[in-house]
Amino acid sequence: DIRMTQSPSSLSASIGDSVTITCRASQSISTYFNWYQQKPGKAPKVLISGASSLESGVPSRFRGSGSGTDFTLTISSLQPEDFATYYCQQTFSSPITFGQGTRLEIK
Amino acid sequence: QVQLQESGPGLVSPSETLSLTCRVSGGSITAYYWTWIRQTPGKGLEWIGHIHDSGTTNYNPSLKSRVTMSIDTSKNQFSLSLTSVTAADTAVYRCARRLLRWPFYMDVWGEGSTVTVSS
Questions:
Q1: How many Cα atoms within 13 Å fall on the side-chain side of residue A62?
Q2: What local confidence, expressed as pLDDT, does residue B43 receive?
Q3: Is the dihedral of CA A54, A58, A63, A69 positive or negative?
Q4: Distance CA A38, CA A84 (A)
Q5: Per-residue pLDDT tens for B55-76?
Q6: Are B1 and B107 in contact (CB under 8 A)?
Q7: Is the CB of residue B103 less than 8 Å from the CB of residue B84?
Q8: Chain A: nearest CA to B45, how far in angstroms?
Q9: Does the CA dihedral B63-A94-B37-B44 come out positive or negative?
Q10: Whole-angstrom Cα distance, residue B8 to residue A89?
Q11: Is A33 near chain B, with CB under 8 Å?
Q12: Which of B60, B104, B110 sits opposite A32 (nearest CB)?
């Protein structure tokens, strides 16, 4: 299985800050890579697909980059609704696997 | 727009079979991978497997010996069966629609069904 390792596991930030979350794959996955946001009690919602494509309706303050094994999600000018848990996912090979999540909290 | 809704028992006895159904509304069940994912605080998000409308399946090797998925295109729904459950199978189970093309992400999710394994 491809292991997806996110860092940090948790993060505290203030409204207006910029934050970066990283995800590393245990082997190269090209851009078969997606970022999801999950709020308590809700299903994950895709934010970025193919490593860098912003999904329809997702604010432009979210940016994804990377390919191969190293990927980043940057959120600029944090808004109250951005405080959630973020997951990375690889769809390069079966089984599909997810990172352990990064919980973004308000400082 | 397409909506998914899981249904099934919220409590399953150890060694019994967990059965869930996902109803697809607002769209066709064809031309996608229909997926089951579970989530626990300890293990996070775990992909269980998927089924195509052709009936082709792909299961997570860690669960493969206990999982069966089926699809009923006439009823626009698909199902999950997990046998010989233990407390470790306690989780929120969600169904999701996954694209057939790169980058193959899950674009529509159900709300989730909490399943507890306990006597």
A1: 22
A2: 87
A3: negative
A4: 6
A5: 999 999 999 999 999 999 999 9
A6: no
A7: no
A8: 6
A9: positive
A10: 27
A11: yes
A12: B104
